[in-house]
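Q: What would this chain look like folded?
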Amino acid sequence: MTVFILLACLGGVLVGLSRQLNGRLSISTTPLIASFWNHAIGFAVLTCLGLFAGGLLPAGAAEAPWYAYLGGSIGVIFVAAGSWVIARIGAVNSALLIIGGQMVTGVAFDYISAVPASFWANAAGIVLIVGGMMISRRRKAGGAQ
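A: My prediction, written as structure tokens:
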């Protein structure tokens, strides 16, 4: 279990580093160019890993429905938007925005899917995230005066 926790932490660090690099690159170029290089390098690295480890094209990939492949297009939009946002509001605020959006979307999906969950626990989580974001924004605005 410890190995998986460490891998998750490493993944989080690498995602944060990737967002920082994309944000910096988008400042010196454009968000679309930053997104292009993010995906080009990711494609090359993952292709090499797939060829080395095997399983580059898993069994059943050809039978997958067409919408299963929309994740790539959504990823391009997400990375380009993230590169644009980081350059404007900073890495910490964009991370809070992403985490808050994931929390609210997860709760909405659970509600739509009728997954049994505690409404009050979910509501408290959303209120705490939004409240933290508001306090963070208020402190930054108050410190700038």
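The helical segments are 2-28, 31-53, 70-89, 91-112, 119-143.
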